[in-house]
Amino acid sequence: METVVVTGGSRGIGAAAVERFAARGDRVYFLYEKNHAAAKAVAGRTGAAALCCDVADPAAVSRTFAALDHVDVLVCGAGISHYGLMSQVEEATWDRIFAVNVKGVYHCVNAAMPHFLRKHRGCIVTVSSMWGQVGASCEAAYSASKGAVIALTKALAKELGPSGIRVNCVAPGVILTDMCAQVDPQALEALAQEAALGRNGTPEDVAQAIEYLARAEFVTGQVLPVNGGLVI
Questions:
Q1: Going by DSSP bridges, is the β-strand pair 73-76/3-7 parallel, antiparallel, or unpaired?
Q2: How far, in Å, CA of 145 to CA of 72, rounded?
Q3: Running DSSP on this structure, what letter comes out for residue 48?
């Protein structure tokens, strides 16, 4: 049994990861920002412990991780998005996206590091996006932040490998979460038809890939696309 911490665990991909690790018998904690009802529901059906914490707040992250006795696996799944022309993205929106999507990873990795270094062992899985690989029109801030996550993953894998810590990344494609709730169904269907597998993904598809990277002892510094062949 390992101790797994999942950020953004109250919904979508994060919640699916919580469910998958909990089903394997791991001790799971998950961080969430403000959706108490959703967090309570995930905790209720999985037995995982819900911890209210904004990953963009370094003091809150530090307190949260300091209260844990140890951490074996960190899944950095917290993320937010924004759709709109670059010229219409307000600076405050841009900053918040980077605060959550990039600095959130920075804060959580640094907070988990003492746990990993004590054992000379650990695993980090970050969650990027296919748009972090190829960019998306009208999602410049989101794409840029997810590209930064990929670069950070590769850099950390090189830096932390000698300490026995593996760092990998999943890059989901079109995944049917609440981020897609405002997308026109016809547009979603068109994207599904563009994918080699002819469908959009589910949170469980990505959680399966996250679990693989958490268990794969000789894999580090890799970006695993989970997009059904939409980007090859």
A1: parallel
A2: 26
A3: P
The CB-side HSE value for 135 (13 A sphere, CA atoms) comes to 5
113-168: per-residue pLDDT in tens? 999 999 999 999 999 999 999 999 999 999 999 999 999 999 999 999 999 999 99
Sign of CA dihedral 197, 199, 202, 206: positive
CA R_g for the chain: 17
In terms of DSSP bridges, do strands 223-226 and 73-76 run parallel, antiparallel, or are they unpaired? Answer: unpaired
Read off the tokens for 96.
């918040």
* Statement: the pTM of the whole predicted model exceeds 0.90: yes
b vs e for 111-139, b when ≥16 Cβ sit within 10 Å of the residue's Cβ? bbbebbeeeeebbbbbbbbbbbbeeeeeb
Indicate which residues carry an active-site annotation: 142
Q: Specify whether domain 3-226 bears CATH 3.40.50.720.
A: yes
